[in-house]
Amino acid sequence: LSVASLEDPVVMSKIRQSLREKHARHIADLRAYYDSEIQSLKQQLEAWCNLYVLNRCDQLDSALNEASAHIKALENKNNQLEKQVADWRERFYALSDNSKALQERLEEIRTSQKEKDNTISRLQSRLRELEEAFEKAYKLSDNKNTRLQEENKMFQNLLGEYESLGKEHERVKDTLNTTENKLLDANTEISDLKRTILKLEAQLKQVEHENALKLRH
Asked: Which regions form coiled coils (predicted)?
């Protein structure tokens, strides 16, 4: 355009009108371009969010299944420990009853042993008396053979009874020692069972605590 035409108001008006139209078209093109980009980004964001949510749901579902399996395992272990504790308690009570019976039997044997010891002591005293009487009778007269034979027979009988009681005494001692050993073994096993029960109860409490934590989680 010439300088003269630029100074013409009509020409300048047309130029400005043309520039406004071009500017408006340019703005519209930019708006359309950015609207398209924004829409595309929105679609991408929505797709990414959906994928993230699906992945997160899968992760949570897997974690839930794993926690459920672990809780089930803890429950099974808990039931097993409870059954084991019940079995050990039953065995402990049986051993306690057996130990009590052995203790009573031991007291009976001790009482019987004491009675036999007293009987043996009396027989020993009687034996000494007869020995003294036999010696006195032998010294007093050699002609009293009949009496001496009777006393000798009585002495032999008493001696046989004494020997029999001595053997019975040894048998009772053996029985007493055997019973005491059984009682000692039973008490030892009872102590072991007590420690085992305490250990199992501690494990049971730990499993219950873990189970409670898992359930709370």
From this structure: 57-210
Element (H, E) at 198: helix 145-216
The backbone torsions φ and ψ at residue 105, rounded to the nearest 5 degrees and listed phi first, read: -65, -40
- State the pTM of this model: 0.44
* CA–CA distance, 43 with 46 (Å, rounded to integer): 5
Judge residue 207's burial from the number of C-beta atoms within 10 Å of its C-beta, 0-12 exposed, 13-18 middle, 19 or more buried.
buried
Residue type, 157: N
- DSSP state at residue 141: -
User: Which two structure tokens, joined as six digits, stand for 159?
Assistant: 């001696």
Pick 40 or 156 by higher pLDDT.
40
| DSSP string covering 26-85 | HHHHHHHHHHHHHHHHHHHHHHHHHHHHHHHHHHHHHHHHHHHHHHHHHHHHHHHHHHHH
CA atoms of 155 and 89, how far apart (whole Å): 59
Q: Residue 196: what residue type?
A: T
